Amino acid sequence: MTELFVKKYKVQTTGADGGHNYILTEIDFKGNRRKLVILFSDKSQEPDLNENEPIKVKGEIKDDGIEYDLMMRNAQMEK
Q: Using CA atoms, how far apart are residues 74 and 59, in angstroms rounded to an integer?
């Protein structure tokens, strides 16, 4: 599990299942600046997202190679 403190991010929305929010950000990962998509495991945490407030998230990062964005699935927001 990886724990990240995210200060700068964008909240995006899907149309699936009544709409889900997810986060787009960038992190330093193994010496490279990479885009990271954070998908939450619990939809009830999604409305709490506010781009002006830093958050702490915990989850597993999936890396399919430098040519793809990193993915953190089933993330949980830490209070």
A: 6
Q: How many domains does the chain have?
A: 1
Each of the 79 residues of the chain gets a pLDDT tens digit; together they read 899 999 999 999 887 666 788 999 999 999 999 999 999 988 887 777 888 899 999 999 999 999 999 999 999 998 6
Rg of the chain on CA atoms, in Å: 12
Two tokens, residue 45? 């945490």
Give me the phi and psi of 17, to 5 degrees please. 50, 40
User: Which tokens sit at 13?
Assistant: 């929305």
Q: The domain containing residue 7 runs over which residues?
A: 2-36+43-78
